[in-house]
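Re: duplicated header lines in exported structure tokens

Our pipeline writes sequence and tokens for each protein into one text file. With two proteins the header for the second block appears twice in some exports. Here is an export where it did not happen, for reference. First protein block:
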Amino acid sequence: MQFKQKISTLGLLLPFMLIPSSVMASSSQFNFEGKWQCEPTEVTDPNEESWVMYDFRDDGTVMSEEWVRYQSEKKTQLEFKLFIDYRFELKGNDYVLKPLALTREIISDPHNIDPFNYDQRRDLTGYRIFFKPTLKGDEKAQFDMWYHITPEDHFSMQCEKQERISIVLR
């Protein structure tokens, strides 16, 4: 079954599909802090839907929530959320995200694929994600991204800065 083969490599491919962020290499005025909602620029698999929310913090960490759903014949084959904490830093002329911790929530897994076994979680947290953002207006950006093990293979995410909602307790 092609779907099971595809999912068996998910632990290696997921970082390639999902991890964008926001920095403009050519401008030190780009403001990272805050939440950015991102979606892939190109859809390579019509059976896949995904988005990522990044929360850049002033302490050099980034908290992400990533959602992915695979469907076949209008039925969900796998749906999950990943929550990844990153360290965010500048390396040379590029910015890098280094995974620190990963948790996951399986929403639907009717075939019991379990794409996040111990080996795949270990592999996922071993990646380094490099990126260069391009600001497109005040609240929008495109993130050109690549992984340290495949620096020639870039992918892009369209991102939009989100409003922070403050709750005042009295």
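Second protein block, exported in the same file:
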Amino acid sequence: MTAASLVGRLVDAFKAEGRIVIVGASLAGLRAAEALREKGFRGPLTIIGDEPHEPYDRPPLSKQVLKGWVPADHTKLPRLRPVDADWRLGVAAVGLDRSNRQVLLANGEKVDYDRLLIATGTRARPWFNAHEAALQGLFTVRTCDDAARLAAALRERPRRVLIVGSGFVGSEIASVCRDLDLAVTVAERGKAPLTGALGGVIGDIAARMQLDAGVDLRTGVAVEALDGDADDHVRRARLSDGTVLDVDVVVACLGSIRNVEWLDGAQLASGFWGVACDAGCRAFDINGVVTDNIFVAGDVARAPHVLYEYEFMSQEHWDNAVFGAEVAANNMISLEMGRRPHLPLPSFWSGQFGVNIKSVGVCSFGDEIVFTQGSPAQRRFAAAYGYRGRIVGAVTFNHGKWLPYYASLIERSAPFPPPPPGYDRPVIFEPMPARFVPRPPRTDRHSRRGADRT
């Protein structure tokens, strides 16, 4: 027997043996299961999800579903191939026993595994006051059930909708409300919408978009309390500037919380920032030692990125979930030489107020911005972000066809400002401060990065 044939038999045996459990039945979990079968895994496969629904698509929830174009229960993700899995839906994982290699479920069951994929994602941050959180008419938007309830409330034509927070989800919902000709107020603690992800320069443009669309945008204020009527339905909101608003619907867009509580006591490197893993999606334990049989993918994963000073980052984006799941699946069933890294260039998109916003790279890593193409006044432009003389991110408004060009510049750490294009040059081609909130200490940067992104 040749060495090559021996290795081939070892690989085949490795793929065929053992039990794989995936905790998280959403985009990353489904795509990982499909990739496992595609790559030849023939062993038992279990998928655990706390929601009763089969995996569904989340981006349409704050757009098409709220507009009434698509019912919330019609957003199921397409199956790319049969996965032949034991689906455990509607039951949450509540613990991980690494010594016995078991996932503990809320119904008391224990699910054995040989290799485990953590893909538990995030949930919406709830309203800060538990009593007020129980008021009817207060919503978050994360699940398809959330979107269905809010869509029903919007169909009732509320007198005024209050959106708390103006990140991408909040801004998209505000856009939907105006499309439905509903009065909407947006309350934002910061100076402008989208500043966490894109900085103050772009935030000013986003603010003007909202105001021109008829949004009652209020920046630099917080919602301090909500008041209900005798039927416990929200009717008023009290703001930090003393204003009292009459509202019928409140949508809390306060960011996300990573679903890691079930890992308490498992001695993995997990916390409010997610689960730390290496570029091959292998989880670290609390001592920084990489595990051999536990992998992480999707929104809950936090991994170092070579283009951003090896900083550990959580990326709440579609592409990260899909490609991370595929890499994790490959590495779960591959011997050392067959493993590969997950080094994605982050990208996301958002549609709001008639503008298609697309971004690539990590714009918030930069401290400067320059408009490279188009016209900011017309909301049709491209802009690049720089850090220490190199391009680290780019954003386009109704100019997305140029995004691959900027992605190629970022991937090779091209100089900033980038060379001006041969045509469609802006009137002003001068770098300026991007006006992000000052960076916290390095160990806490993750609390700003990746929050509230579509």
